[in-house]
Automatic annotation (TrEMBL):
Gene3D superfamilies: Chitobiase/beta-hexosaminidase domain 2-like, Glycosidases. It comes from Nonomuraea mangrovi. It comes from the Bacteria. This is beta-N-acetylhexosaminidase. It is an enzyme of class 3 (hydrolase). Signal peptide: none annotated.
Length: 534
């Protein structure tokens, strides 16, 4: 039901319901935000005010439906959306907009027309509860208004989690009042690579930006009105060079560092002193004030142990704690932060490298290195959000050939994304229940503008959204419906990839990539996970 009502979930009726200037809308107070959104969206596009009152279009509270479930019934006389919670009402409202002419997705009127929908009955609910998208704003900053636009795009596809990767070696994007240098220094780098790092090309342009705390409050509120939860990520203990550049005492080398200007995994990680632990606990104190959602991501990924293995204080910490090695030291450090979150009623999310030293209790695992990691975490009794490198990373190229902008990774085609199943084979029923859902990822090392972000995201993100919403999928049917959906994307101003390949202005001959085969990717994944102990 992501793009337009699927035949298996719809019962068509007879005739049309036609919107007029007098079309009223009523809503239960629990569902008021969905009603307000629908009124604003349709009034802007149609010029027809939706007024409070009985009859016409009604959003009504109904018992017995799940929080994201809805029923939509349209006759020649009225439209009724029934839901038990804000999310279900909002998704019903989105489906109503999808049933209208694609011009309903525009921000203003384009002329006089008759606005009508077919008489129809729809009963709908998602297959997975976690339907997310990660946007990396650390590598390339996405200005606030562009991020708000993306929240609208996620919501239009009934995705419900925006994972914001806020910190990394190449930039710190969140204002922290207690530590202002994190953004005064850490939010800016002097230049960025131009294309894949193997080419050793740089653009020579400073890059930066950050979100103020009021920006974040606005973003979180805006998302909540659209049934999207914003999940923040403060990456620890690796991917922290921007923080160390701002506060050198957090590092292991005792020398000043700049914000990292290269992509890839850097060896500069934070130290394990009590003062550094206090520093990041203070950071998380402010993060919890800003993000009210259940989950907070604390990273745990791609942490080279070189500096810890050479650091006398780190070695002493390992000895004092009776740990075997630096992998267990990372687990000890991350357990401090996960215990901190659990004590405050939040759920910590960490990447699957945490398996290497033993998962801290209560951690939800972001499984990005394939089914093996997802299965191990689920069998160990941990909830899992699946985001596999080779299937859901939308920064990977979309087709063979050199026409794709900054082609990296293997080909992640529209068909493959639509066929994606987040549940690994071989799990028991109890273990399968641990798979909360999945999220696509837009890592932005090579995505340096909102226009390119559109190109890499769409239409693959639409295919991913349908895969997470609908249990039964037919790619050929999806392609037929996609032709209509592209008209909606056009109305929204989304610069998606055409089926025939990129427009000339979507190509990037100035930024060479590093395309790889799927066999190479699979071999790399096997190497990365070879040290995992069942």
């Amino acid at each position: 039901m992501t793009l337009i009502p699927a035949p298996s979930r719809c019962a068509p009726g007879q005739g049309l319901f036609t919107f007029t200037a007098a079309t009223p809308l009523t809503a239960d107070p629990v569902l008021a935000r969905a009603a307000a959104w629908l009124r604003q969206a349709l009034t802007s596009a149609t010029g027809l005010p939706l007024l409070d009152g009985p009859g016409g279009v009604e959003i009504r509270h109904a018992v017995g439906l799940g929080p994201e479930e809805y029923r939509l019934t349209a006759t020649t006389e009225s439209v009724l959306i029934e839901a038990s919670a804000q999310a279900g009402a909002f998704y019903g409202a989105q489906t109503l907009r999808q049933l209208l002419d694609p011009a309903a997705f525009r921000a203003g009127r384009t002329g006089d027309r008759t606005w009508s929908i077919p008489a129809i009955e729809i009963a709908d609910a998602p297959t997975y509860g976690w339907r997310g998208c990660l946007i990396d704003v650390a590598r390339h900053f996405l200005p606030k208004n562009d991020l708000l636009r993306y929240i609208d795009l996620l919501a239009a596809h009934k995705l419900n989690v925006l994972h914001l990767h806020l910190t990394d070696d190449q930039g710190w994007r969140l204002e922290i009042r207690k530590y202002p240098k994190l953004t005064e220094i850490g939010a800016w780098r002097r230049e960025s690579p131009l294309g894949a790092r193997r080419h050793r090309l740089f653009d020579g342009r400073p890059h930066g930006g950050f979100y103020s705390q009021d920006d974040i409050r606005e973003i979180v509120s805006y998302a909540a009105d659209r049934s999207v939860t914003v999940l923040p990520e403060i990456d620890l203990p690796g991917h922290t060079q921007a923080a160390v550049a701002a506060y050198p005492e957090l590092g292991n080398l005792g020398v000043p560092l700049g914000v990292r200007t290269e992509w890839g995994v850097g060896e500069n990680v934070i130290n394990v002193s009590d003062e550094t632990i206090t520093f990041f606990t203070d950071v998380l104190d402010e993060v919890l004030e800003l993000f009210p959602g259940e989950y907070i991501c604390v990273g745990g990924d791609e942490t080279p142990k070189t500096q810890w293995n050479e650091s006398l204080p780190a070695k002493e910490r390992i000895r004092e704690l009776g740990l075997r090695d630096a992998d267990e030291l990372q687990t000890w450090l991350m357990r401090h932060f996960t215990d901190y979150l659990l004590a405050r009623g939040r759920k910590p999310l960490g990447w699957d490298e945490l398996l290497e030293g033993g998962l801290p209790p209560g951690v939800t695992v972001g499984a990005w290195r394939g089914d093996r990691c997802a299965s191990m975490a689920a069998r160990a009794g941990h909830d899992v959000v699946v985001s596999p490198f080779a299937e859901t990373y939308l920064d990977f190229r979309q087709a063979e050939g050199d026409q794709e902008p900054v082609p990296i990774g293997s080909v992640t085609s529209l068909r493959a994304v639509h066929a994606f199943d987040p549940v690994p084979h071989g799990l028991t029923g109890e273990e399968r229940s641990r798979i909360l859902g999945a999220q696509a990822a837009l890592w932005t090392e090579h995505i340096d503008s909102p226009r390119l972000l559109d190109y890499m995201a769409f239409p693959r993100l639409a295919a991913f959204a349908e895969a997470m919403w609908s249990a039964e999928r037919d790619f050929e049917d999806f392609r037929v419906r996609l032709a209509v959906h592209e008209k909606r994307l056009d109305a929204l101003g989304v610069e998606y990839r055409p089926a025939t390949g990129p427009h000339p202005w979507q190509r990037r001959p100035d930024a060479p990539g590093h395309p790889r085969s799927r066999a190479e990717i699979d071999s790399q994944l096997a190497e990365w996970t070879s040290n995992l102990r069942p």
